[in-house]
UniProtKB/TrEMBL annotation:
The reaction proceeds by a bi uni uni bi ping pong mechanism. This is Pantothenate synthetase. The keyword ATP-binding applies. It is an enzyme of class 6 (ligase). It is found in: Cytoplasm. It comes from Pseudomonas flexibilis. Catalyzes the condensation of pantoate with beta-alanine in an ATP-dependent reaction via a pantoyl-adenylate intermediate. Its EC number is 6.3.2.1.
Amino acid sequence: MNTVTTVQQLRDAVAQARRAGQRIGLVPTMGNLHAGHVSLIEQARRSADFIVASIFVNPLQFGANEDLDKYPRTLAEDQDKLAAAGCNLLFTPTVAEMYPNGMDGQTRVLVPGVSEGLCGTSRPGHFEGVATVVCKLFNMVQPDMAVFGEKDYQQLAVIRTLVRDLNLPIEIQGAPIVRAADGLALSSRNGYLSAEQRSVAPALYRSLQQLAERLRNGETDHAALVAEARRSQEAAGFRPDYLEIREASSLRPATADDRNLVLLAAAYLGNTRLIDNLCVER
Ligand code: PAF
């Protein structure tokens, strides 16, 4: 696996693969890779011949009081994991390479609708930063397909909408959430948790499972179900940010008639904000 740092090197390497008739797959990441990221590479390999991964901790998608500075950077370990997973090319640009004219005047991509509410409310500007950097990566690599984790369910919806609305000829695939044995969704931010917080953390997923079970059993009072699930999160030691029942594909608030639902949660354990989600059919 080669690692390149400039857009020109990236374009040259991808052009060579394309000339050889290879289908290009892209897996954008912010590094500090875990088994969830490895599953994205493995999924990309099933649909493409030449896999490009990017590692870029994108300042544009972090709020002023968020964890940009302490976000874990583990390039050497990440390179080993990507190579072992069969990634062909790693792109690790600097901030100056991605935003050569600075970030203030950077053209931005705004995806209305699906960016609003949920993480869009808790993290103003976050999805604009995500959509902008993903659009730039798409233009730099021009992949045939790209894979994103379903753990960031709203992000995946934003990217699908951006690809549709801007007519980008890229197949977007979602990859299932990878969980630890106790149910906690893998996330780079799990590394911020103390041992005690880590033992509490799976309660977030359990609260979603319990809520899903009650929906499948025919309960339709969403407000009451959500209030109860929030109480169970609080009792476990979480400070809930949001917990919502949405229609799974449009992300609009679900009605009692909707059959395909997604439960979306964000909650704090100390200063660490965890997100999770669970799809439910009823
Ligand atoms: O999900 C992530 O790691 C990031 O939001 C992404 C898609 C790589 C954009 O910076």
